[in-house]
Automatic annotation (TrEMBL):
<dbReference type="InterPro" id="IPR036477">
    <property type="entry name" value="Formyl_transf_N_sf"/>
</dbReference>
<dbReference type="GO" id="GO:0005829">
    <property type="term" value="C:cytosol"/>
</dbReference>
<comment type="pathway">
    <text>Purine metabolism; IMP biosynthesis via de novo pathway; N(2)-formyl-N(1)-(5-phospho-D-ribosyl)glycinamide from N(1)-(5-phospho-D-ribosyl)glycinamide (10-formyl THF route): step 1/1.</text>
</comment>
<feature type="site" description="Raises pKa of active site His">
    <location>
        <position position="145"/>
    </location>
</feature>
<feature type="binding site">
    <location>
        <position position="107"/>
    </location>
    <ligand>
        <name>(6R)-10-formyltetrahydrofolate</name>
    </ligand>
</feature>
<comment type="function">
    <text>Catalyzes the transfer of a formyl group from 10-formyltetrahydrofolate to 5-phospho-ribosyl-glycinamide (GAR), producing 5-phospho-ribosyl-N-formylglycinamide (FGAR) and tetrahydrofolate.</text>
</comment>
<feature type="binding site">
    <location>
        <position position="65"/>
    </location>
    <ligand>
        <name>(6R)-10-formyltetrahydrofolate</name>
    </ligand>
</feature>
<keyword id="KW-0808">Transferase</keyword>
<dbReference type="InterPro" id="IPR002376">
    <property type="entry name" value="Formyl_transf_N"/>
</dbReference>
<feature type="active site" description="Proton donor">
    <location>
        <position position="109"/>
    </location>
</feature>
<dbReference type="Pfam" id="PF00551">
    <property type="entry name" value="Formyl_trans_N"/>
</dbReference>
<feature type="binding site">
    <location>
        <begin position="90"/>
        <end position="93"/>
    </location>
    <ligand>
        <name>(6R)-10-formyltetrahydrofolate</name>
    </ligand>
</feature>
<feature type="domain" description="Formyl transferase N-terminal">
    <location>
        <begin position="3"/>
        <end position="182"/>
    </location>
</feature>
<comment type="similarity">
    <text>Belongs to the GART family.</text>
</comment>
<dbReference type="GO" id="GO:0004644">
    <property type="term" value="F:phosphoribosylglycinamide formyltransferase activity"/>
</dbReference>
<dbReference type="InterPro" id="IPR004607">
    <property type="entry name" value="GART"/>
</dbReference>
<dbReference type="GO" id="GO:0006189">
    <property type="term" value="P:'de novo' IMP biosynthetic process"/>
</dbReference>
Amino acid sequence: MKSIVILISGHGSNMQAIVRAAQAEQWPVRIAAVISNKADAEGLTFAARLGIPTSVVSNKDYPDRAQFDAALQVEIDRYMPDCVVLAGFMRILTAPFVLHYAGRMLNIHPSLLPSFTGLATHRQALAAGVKVHGATVHFVTPDLDHGPIVSQAVVPVFDDDTEATLAARILVEEHKIYPLAVRWFIEGRLRIVDGCVRHHQ
C-alpha cells in the first residue's frame, strides 16, 4: 500500500477533497500525515478529526528558506511517503528540496499552465481577457509552476466575472481533478517521458 503526505497552509480544501475521495473510493493508500507551515491552518483540525497524524513546521522558526526546507524534509521523510501532495501550500520551495522528491511531488495551480504562473492567477486571466481559464495538476520541478502536466480542467470566463466568481468556479473543478490525479499516481498509472506525462492502464 502506498502512502502520501499532504502539505497545506490554510483551509486545505483540496486536501479534504483528496482525503474524502480516498475514503469513499477505497484507494490502496495510507494518508500518512498532513503537515502545515502554519499552526492555525484550519485543515489540521479536519485531518486530526479523522485520526490523520498532523504536524507543523513553521517557516517563521527558520532564518531562511533553505533551513526551513531542510527541516520540512526531515519531517516529511519520517513518514516515508511515496508521494508528497501540495494542497494550497503557500511556500516557494528550494531546488534541493524539490529534487529530493523528483517524480513524486504533485501540485495544483489555479490556471491553465504554462499561462499565468505565480500569484493572483484569476486577476491575470481577467486582465488578459481570456475566454477560458482553469486549473492544472503537475509534477513539481525547480521551475516555479512548471513541471510535467498530469491533468487540467477548463472553465469558461464570463464577461461579468470577478476574481471571486472565477476562483469559485475553478475550485469546484480542482476538487475533481486533484483527487483523480493523486489516485492515478497511487495506482502507478503515470509515467514521465521526455518531460511529458504519459498515462497507462
